[in-house]
Amino acid sequence: MESKDKGLINQFKTRYMKMWWDTPATFPRFDKVFDLNRHIAREKDMNTFIDRIILEIRKFPSDNEEDCAQWGARVRDLIRRAGNEIIGLTDGCMRILLNGGFSNVTSDFISKAREFDSKVRMDDIMQAMRNVWIMNSIQLLLEVDVQYTPSLFAYSMLYPYTDNYLDTPNISFNEKKEISARFRMRLEGKPIAARDSYEASLFKLVGMVEDQYPRASGNQVYASLLSIHDAQQKSLLQQYGNISPYEMDIMGISFEKGGTSVLTDAYLAKYSLKEAEGAFMFGFGIFLQLVDDAQDAKTDMKNGHMTMFSQTAEKWPLDNITNRLFNFTYGVLDTDDCFSGSEKEEIKDVIKKNCTFLLLGAIAHNRGMYSKSYIEEIEKYCPFSFHYMRHLYKRIGKEYGRISKKIADNSMDVAIAQALT
Asked: Tens digit of pLDDT for each residue in 107-163?
């Protein structure tokens, strides 16, 4: 990676680390308060929504085109109403999610994932879809067509192929380093033959990016891919176990990994960015990474993976660091003047609401890592009670497992595609 690209990333990282420390750890400001009666009402509505969605999925008419179209319309209407009435998303937000090109890209991505690897699990596809939706949001912000592209597919699929592999505890640190070094050679465009089916898949995904962005004209694309790869390499150090903050820059590693991840999304979406656009994308990636770390705090502690949240949880309640993350996220989104206009503000509002809900869910899931007084106070700003939130995730997981056992993966793919198009 060229020194100027490294310099820009270091500039972004330094800027946001300063912003983090300048951000207060005071209790965040929320739009709405939910008392007991509102919790009960919304939980009842959510239970009804889940029951109806499950019923519709089980009745999926896979062999009749007209019935499929009517089925898809019913499912989309259920999703739209749930977004408006239960989650509290505006009509504009739901229009973006259901009619703004997201749904068509989702359908295309699922189909292409099956073509690429017939054995890929639906769980891995849905994990990859998270990055697809992030890139769709970026496409809207950058004013490019919301569409499926080879690079969108390739980069999104690299997540289940690389992140999960690197996080696997039964693979040695040295083996992970060797695989990462070989993958870096492929990203650099050097001739290297795949040793096994895993590497063959990785190298094939890089080839898809090369088909869209020839190396002679795509220097920024490949520089960004190398930057996220290098950040992932550094993040392997987080798996060393109980480490003092004075021994390793866990914060810097987390900021660089998150920031370069979404910055790469942006380069793949548009190829060339203004510095202000790149800066926003880097900040966007940072708070997404930290939200992930907040969600995984308990698991990371169990596995000996050091993040800002798992390190803190070993000594102190997560109250203040979570407050700071809420405020940091809102600061990145609210102070941005690079992406303005009603539609872009709506996109940022979707991002804000989604991160808020995910963070509230992380608090509910990891409630033992917070003070009792904090749990009691912040629960008032969650659309559901934390007790319900914990059981909601469990229920969704169980219902998904039951449905997937009864419905073949390819039928599930068709159902999802039909619901979204």
From this structure: 888 888 888 888 777 778 888 888 999 999 999 999 998 889 999 999 999 877 777
Q: Is 114 helix (H, G, I), strand (E, B) or coil?
A: helix
93 vs 346: CA distance, rounded Å: 6
Token pair of 412 as six digits: 């599930």
Instruction: Please answer whether residues 233 and 180 qualify as being in contact, where contact means their C-beta atoms are separated by less than 8 angstroms.
Output: yes
- Are 350 and 137 in contact by the 8 Å Cβ rule? The answer is yes
The per-residue pLDDT for range 73-119, each reduced to its tens digit, is: 888 888 888 888 888 778 877 877 776 677 778 888 888 888 888 87
User: What is the assigned CATH class of domain 3-30+89-382?
Assistant: mainly alpha
| Whether the predicted model's global pTM rises above the 0.70 cut | yes
Residue spans per domain, the chain: 3-30+89-382
d(CA 9, CA 315): 31
Burial class (CB in 10 A: 0-12, 13-18, 19+), 168: exposed
For 237, the enclosing helix (H) or strand (E) is none
Residue 265 phi, psi (nearest 5): -50, -45
DSSP code at position 188: T
